[in-house]
Automatic annotation (TrEMBL):
<feature type="compositionally biased region" description="Basic residues">
    <location>
        <begin position="64"/>
        <end position="79"/>
    </location>
</feature>
<keyword id="KW-0812">Transmembrane</keyword>
<keyword id="KW-0805">Transcription regulation</keyword>
<dbReference type="InterPro" id="IPR006779">
    <property type="entry name" value="S1FA_DNA-bd"/>
</dbReference>
<keyword id="KW-0678">Repressor</keyword>
<comment type="function">
    <text>DNA-binding protein that specifically recognizes a negative element (S1F) within the RPS1 promoter.</text>
</comment>
<dbReference type="GO" id="GO:0003677">
    <property type="term" value="F:DNA binding"/>
</dbReference>
<feature type="region of interest" description="Disordered">
    <location>
        <begin position="64"/>
        <end position="89"/>
    </location>
</feature>
<dbReference type="Pfam" id="PF04689">
    <property type="entry name" value="S1FA"/>
</dbReference>
<keyword id="KW-0804">Transcription</keyword>
<comment type="similarity">
    <text>Belongs to the S1FA transcription factor family.</text>
</comment>
<dbReference type="GO" id="GO:0005634">
    <property type="term" value="C:nucleus"/>
</dbReference>
<keyword id="KW-0472">Membrane</keyword>
<feature type="transmembrane region" description="Helical">
    <location>
        <begin position="34"/>
        <end position="58"/>
    </location>
</feature>
<dbReference type="GO" id="GO:0006355">
    <property type="term" value="P:regulation of DNA-templated transcription"/>
</dbReference>
<keyword id="KW-0238">DNA-binding</keyword>
<protein>
    <recommendedName>
        <fullName>DNA-binding protein S1FA-like</fullName>
    </recommendedName>
</protein>
């Protein structure tokens, strides 16, 4: 193969405009999209951690949940299943 390249002294046409792009990126600083992503991500993370902390606090301090009262009809049915006769029968 021949070692003499067509673009030996200058870059190919597709890369001629790339020099300006590299210089412009250094001077701009942070990407605004990245800042928005970090702020929104931070808020979501804070929300989730706060909810978890509140959940743990509620588990320790709140009394246990009260059970629903059982109706007399259901109590009678349960006693019959267990073989104990209901009073008054």
């Amino acid at each position: 193969m021949e070692d003499d390249f067509e673009f030996a002294d200058h870059p190919p046409p597709s890369f001629q405009n790339m020099g300006n792009v590299v210089k412009d990126v250094e001077a701009k600083g942070f990407n605004p999209g990245l800042i928005v992503l970090l702020v929104v991500g931070g808020l979501v993370l804070t929300f989730l951690i706060g909810n978890y902390v509140l959940y743990l606090y509620a588990q320790k301090t709140l009394p246990p949940k009260k059970k629903k009262p059982i109706s007399k009809k259901k109590m009678k049915r349960e006693r019959l299943k267990q073989g104990v006769s209901a009073p008054g029968e």
